[in-house]
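Notebook B, p. 112. Complex prediction, attempt 2.
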Amino acid sequence: MDLRLSEEERLVKETAAHFVARELISREGAYLKQRELFLPPGDPPRRELDPEIRSLLTERAKQVGLWALELPEFVGGSGMGALARVLIHREFGRTILPFEPACIPGLMANDENVTALVEGRLSLAFAFDQVHKSGTLKEVETRFRPESGGFAISATSIDLLNPSADLFLLPAREQGTNRIGLFLLDRETPGVSVGEVVDLTADSQVGRLTLKECKVKENRLLGYQYEAGEIIACEQLRLAARALGIGMRCLADSIEHARSRVTFGRPLSQRQAIQWMLADLSINLRTCTWLTLEAAWRADQGMLYFAVAALAKKRAARMAFEAADTAIQIHGGYGVCKEFPFEGFYREARLMRLLYGCEQEMDRISGEMFITEGAG
Amino acid sequence: MDLRLSEEERLVKETAAHFVARELISREGAYLKQRELFLPPGDPPRRELDPEIRSLLTERAKQVGLWALELPEFVGGSGMGALARVLIHREFGRTILPFEPACIPGLMANDENVTALVEGRLSLAFAFDQVHKSGTLKEVETRFRPESGGFAISATSIDLLNPSADLFLLPAREQGTNRIGLFLLDRETPGVSVGEVVDLTADSQVGRLTLKECKVKENRLLGYQYEAGEIIACEQLRLAARALGIGMRCLADSIEHARSRVTFGRPLSQRQAIQWMLADLSINLRTCTWLTLEAAWRADQGMLYFAVAALAKKRAARMAFEAADTAIQIHGGYGVCKEFPFEGFYREARLMRLLYGCEQEMDRISGEMFITEGAG
Amino acid sequence: MDFHLSEQEENLRQTVQEFVHDELVPLEREFENAPDIFEGTRWKTRARLSSDPDVKHYIEIMEALEKKADAKGLWYLDVPKEYGGMQVSNVAMIAVTEELEKSSIPFEFGNHVSNILYNCKGEQIERFLWPCVRGEKTSAFGLSEPASGADPSMLQTVAAPDGDDFIINGTKMFPTFADVADFVQLFARLPGTKGREGVTCFLIETGTPGYRVVRSIATMAGTEPCELVFEDCRVHRSQVLGEVGKGWDLNQAWLGARRFQVGIRAHGAAQRMLRSVAELLRADPVEAQRFASQVGRFAGELAALRTLTYFGSWKADQKMDVRSEAANVKLFATELLHHVIDFALEVAGPSAMRKTHAMARAFRHARSNRIIEGPSEIQRHIIQRALFREGITFLELP
Amino acid sequence: MDFHLSEQEENLRQTVQEFVHDELVPLEREFENAPDIFEGTRWKTRARLSSDPDVKHYIEIMEALEKKADAKGLWYLDVPKEYGGMQVSNVAMIAVTEELEKSSIPFEFGNHVSNILYNCKGEQIERFLWPCVRGEKTSAFGLSEPASGADPSMLQTVAAPDGDDFIINGTKMFPTFADVADFVQLFARLPGTKGREGVTCFLIETGTPGYRVVRSIATMAGTEPCELVFEDCRVHRSQVLGEVGKGWDLNQAWLGARRFQVGIRAHGAAQRMLRSVAELLRADPVEAQRFASQVGRFAGELAALRTLTYFGSWKADQKMDVRSEAANVKLFATELLHHVIDFALEVAGPSAMRKTHAMARAFRHARSNRIIEGPSEIQRHIIQRALFREGITFLELP
């Protein structure tokens, strides 16, 4: 057992940490600053990163190899393993600035659109709505059937995060066999429609994707059950890693605030109620950190890792939510203010808990396995 | 709304409080004292109250009207309503001394054995084992069928608390109709056997009651569904009231100990971790107190009260367990010592949580109702 | 012991129940996508700022409801008789709010007056109190500061006596509605005083020279609290509410009275969330089975909150000390609501995170409840202090 | 980063796995009703006191297991090489205990020696350490007192220097097995010292004049800790373990090393409880559906505990500061076990409260784990202290 980072792993981590501190956290102040003195009534509008800043950051991220992490280098990616990606996403999770490396699954390396995706001319959305309940493929209801020269795909209504994307990756079930296929779909394909785009409570949007007998070529079938499962596990690891970053940021800022904020004659840091909150959070952070790293390491080793990745996501997302909740509570009235990052983390983490597996359903699945097999 | 106790209610409460302080709590020291200097290996044996002291206490309880609370006065009972009984059992719950007023349901007032029961020559057990899962009658599997001049009752194996009792009150289900009947059964009736009597983790015993075609006379059918339900609700209220007593005792002793115990230069009472535990417990005690009183008051008013009684029991038993757990934690090493009352409360409360309804199953039943009816 | 409402209280409750059934429930569908600004009784002051025609439409509906409520005698319920109100008991006000909360329409009976304004004396009555009673003016509550909340010793705004005047300097954070209020109830301390001592409450009109509402602040709850600055703001001593140096007691009184209402509102909001969950589950028997025990558990906790709230209000009606009861209710209610909403989102899934979804709204609004008007930590502190002062006497039934 | 055990560690783990499979699992049925006295490695000293023929029977089984384990090279695992042991890593010891805990047989490999005894010097080695290594003697740990536990400043037992001797006076509460131990590791302070300063550890044989084990004390856990009294107990300075005045560090070292083992044991016990639950549920598909999500949640928490324990042990092997990690493990493990047992009883119902039922036993035994060797509050204190001292550096991966 050697839990030290390798030289390469350390380099990756430090590059990401440096980028996040220098390029992202330094811009938080401007991003969070309230623009008008007096607000219109009602809920504040969704925040967005200035498109120019986004392009600038994208360029710089590419320069230091923090882009298209999953893709091999020959198509412009960084060719990182799962562990390296976790180390990177963990750093990006530490900022409220909505910017992170584009996620382009490795199995798209040979797709005709891969260069456009890497260069940012096209964007990709995972249309995995039906997977969010359990984090598995069992609720997938999108249907496909083979046709001459390709497939026809139909779905009534899929909640689509990132609804402005140009390409959609989605799992579907073959009529008759019920076999899962993983498809890449163009927004422009006849039969595809995206409607009802609205804001989410997190600073992102959702739309409704409908597929009416959409015809795709054979080469748009990118994989089967296992490949779709890998997308889920990768997304779970990405979310878990982001959650770790959120937890670290919230814990660090809370410690800092507790040291300096004085009430009733003593700093908050001397109150057990505050100490205990932070102690419990730190335990949680430790366990989530090691579960996530272990899952990623297993992935890189070619070992079974889906179940651990699911567990890591479940626990880490919950931890991040509690971390943000704690940070809000410790910061008092400022905690819910939009000029501070915590309420944003709180909303984001709440959504993360509902993506790629809700807690109770994930627990139920692993519980059923435990009951059947009598082992952990 | 007038939440003051009436004169009569106050008198009842004070009589019970006085009896418990003077006759029971005063004897705790002797009861809890370890008899030998060095213990044999293994788990300490079950504690029992000295039979002579038990008779003495029984006499004195009768003298002040704290006996056979449910029965009318003409058969030697105290004729108390539900609220008065809650006030009494709450006081008896405050002591670890295993002594409380005999529970003889009002519907036995006309039974031939009632005098013997009141006088303590006979004892009664509720053989309600199958009810403990959900706190309802739906799991009752004991069967009865009418026969000439009476009924025949059969059951394979019923866990029987108080296995030394002479009479058993038990619900059974009629073959064919599935209707519930509530029966009184003699230990001496042919076909009745009580075996495998062993100690429980609480300071009481359990045995296995088996009924093989036990024939009882017609007058031993004391009621139907509603009467059996009333026994359950009464027991739930009794347990809830005892649990309140346990909670009060644990909270009071913990406050006292926290005031006087000094660690790291300050009394425990000045540590927020301790303060918070006790604050949370006190909230719990308040809510349980009012739920229990309200349920009892409803019973006395002739209003529907089964659901509230069930809720009161569920929450109060859990509260008592947490109260004992907190008291143990605050008392540190002494908390688990048998010379202190807290570990005894802890074991008793753990059992109480499993009697007349387990938490999750009770929640499920009320949840199903809420889902169906859309109201609380 | 008698848990029944009095006849008078019960009649009032029934009137409200009918009002909710006849007037509010039919509007629920229409309000599903209403703008997020109709909470509480001060919505009008803010809604007026909007140029959105949609908002105008809802203002009309709300104003029509006000007239109907007034016609049924449901206005001025908690206003003292001497000011023409009905002066109903705390228990009755809980029953009223409980009924109102059964509907999702964010409608309240008015006019609620900041309870400490009943300490107005002399010309203050005509200048501040009556306009509030009549609904012509609204007030903001200026207590907390950039570095102080529940701790009086950190309060730094100073009111320096100068002849018959006081000169006020300092900054206040988070008074809600201050940008649209007509005056502020401002807490400041006399120079050189410490702790509670010297804290004094002033009534200061918007527009008074030296008093500026600097900005409103965006929050997750969409409540836009404000930042107020006082720079050599001169006010006459006739603007002191109550007595000079006795302001902290007023603050405590203000908080105490509100906490039972906070409790019953949280109860109502949680109950509605749970009903929405039940509605989802009725459509899916498998899911219903999976979530039933949690629904049941929360239903039980809500029953507990309800009885706790009534009991505390009853004690308040008996003029007993209810500081600990109020803290119990505030803490239990806001934490429970938080958990119920969390559960509702778990059942409903990511689609309920749409910004205008009732659950997402409740999610955003509920978070600040565990902080404002005394965070959970302060409530626990109040509770433990009473415990160590008085032991378990609170369980000695009255 | 590499999570694999080393080849040597993996071989050891496999040997233990085989031992458990071949030797322990077949005995499980027989041990179901075994007397409650075979926990840990010191069971023999206590079991010998029993006149119960049943106990004799189990002693024979346990002794036979010891011989088999010794024959397979599974004895003296954590004893340093200089004392003839295998000196395996902390990680390896965790892996060993993890395998052992898969069986419900309360068997441990010996001989565990109180780790601080390796500080023995000169003739102490022959007098105290070697007999412990060989399993001929056992020791008790005399730290806590009627009024002191984790706080050194409350420690009142005094060791007054008198020429080459110390004269010890004081009372110790709760040392387990003191009534059957051959000597006690006693912590006392030099006169006039405060806090950690002056705390000194002595090795004192049972039977030394002035040292009495007064009584053993019944507890819920059935562990019978003892009360020790020292009245003018004279000991020679050669009986000081380590240095005079440096005793508190020994105490801390003793606790630190144990906590990872506490963690993996709690993991094992909880895992067995959960497997018993699974067995009950396999027989009842409806119940299985109802409890599945809780089973799954606990299984996940156990995985988290496992990884936390391995990580902390690995850090200990690297000679890094593991005080906070040890506190993390102790707290998380003992609280989790408590919750798992509570859940198991809910599933199994009142029949599992029979005194000899494995769940009831676990219920009684687990409670004291949250108190002894540093209660949960002390663990949280250690954790927060490190947080405010070092911030989140603990998340900087090594």
